[in-house]
Amino acid sequence: MEQAKEMGGASRVRTRSVAFVGLSIALMAVSAWVSVPFGPVPFTLQTFVMVFALLVLTPGECLAAIGGYLVIGAVGLPVFSSMRGGIGVLAGPTGGFLWGFLLGAIVALAFLRLVDARLRRGAAAESGPGDGIAKGGRGKRRALAVDVVAGFLFLLVMYVCGWVQLMGVAGLGPEAAFATAVAPFLVVDGVKLVAGVLTARAVRKALPGR
User: Fold this and answer.
1) Residue 35 host element (H or E)
2) H or E stretch including 87?
3) How far from the centroid of its chain's Cα atoms is residue 102's Cα?
4) Contact indicator for 39, 79 with CB cutoff of 8 Å
5) Which pTM does this prediction carry?
6) Strand, helix or coil at 44?
7) Per residue in 145-179, pLDDT tens?
8) Degrees to nearest 5, angle at CA 163 with 160 and 165
């Protein structure tokens, strides 16, 4: 009986995880369709969704969602910006930003795991008599800062990948590629990063275990 209950619980967890991954892939596609043309690289809502997924999903779910999104786009489904699809998009001038989603997520998730381990050790060392309210306030501010830094690392890696591929494919110099593909998006992506972090924290608070 106990074994059956454990198997049923594990099955529900897997089903829930698959549902989260599928929903995240759908959100990534929809956010890519909401785009504003701006030179070769359009404005989209993907930064917001990627940061949100990074902080709400488990590491395995996050990487599965981004990897699945890239795969279904590579086989031709129109899930990329401007409703495009195909391996040519990934190999094209703006494809580096798409590859950067996956590489950026790996770096950001590694950072979150490292910081989480250090914070756990620090919390254990500080667990003694003290002002619980003050500690709680510091903990919330620290957690918010960690989430923002993780989002920043994700953006940094994404920008570098997109910048390098644009230089190689379009034959642009470093300054021209930066001015075309990075500089115009810094402020807007910063806003989307903060929005993604705040939304993710609200969802984690509402959904136990997230």
Assistant:
1) strand 35-36
2) helix 87-91
3) 8
4) no
5) 0.85
6) strand
7) 999 999 999 999 999 999 999 999 999 999 999 99
8) 105
